[in-house]
């Protein structure tokens, strides 16, 4: 009976700690994804400025060079551009994305769709740069949130687990 109770209490503690770690991990993941999208936008800007490749080809190349979640956005947009406009494909890919980015982050990225493939080279480059500036601000916010919340949720998960164990003893 004591062994069963000990296993039960250990399980409660482990589950609580796991949930705390899971919640804290999303802050680090969001920061990583924002930095990756920033890098991808830089590649996009350089490729359209210097190589004059079509946007679908550039997006496909970026998808190969990016981490999974961000690469999937560019790959899906690239594939969709065969059937719909570049702006619509970009928005659709953002809507279907599976990232830790919040609604504001995605709204900034969807702003890129307004000019994507619709203006000349200079117009698209200026829109990419504007988006990059907004993403810079979001990266700073994400770093602050990560520092503040990551340790908080790890500690909260462990503390909640210990509290439940102590109460049940």
Sum this structure up briefly:
With 169 residues, the chain is mostly helical. The protein has helices spanning 2-50, 55-65, 68-80, 86-95, 103-110, 121-168.
Mean pLDDT: 86
Which structural category do the helix and sheet elements fall into? mainly alpha
Helicity, in percent? over 70%
Detail the poorly predicted runs.
none
Radius of gyration: 21 Å
State the end-to-end distance.
13 Å
Percentage of β-strand residues: under 5%
Coarse shape: elongated
Topology order in helix (H) and strand (E) letters: HHHHHH
| Count of helical stretches | 6
Tally of extended strands?
0
Largest sheet: none
Can you give a write-up of this model?
The relative contact order is 0.17. Helix 1 (2-50) packs antiparallel against helix 6. This protein is mostly helical. The chain has a domain at 32-148. It has helices at residues 2-50, 55-65, 68-80, 86-95, 103-110, 121-168.
Topology (SSEs and partners):
Blueprint (H helix, E strand, L loop, with lengths): L1 H49 L4 H11 L2 H13 L5 H10 L7 H8 L10 H48 L1
Helix pairs in contact: 1-2, 1-6, 2-3, 3-4
Record keyword descriptors for this entry.
single chain, 169 residues, mainly alpha, 6 helices, 82% helix, elongated
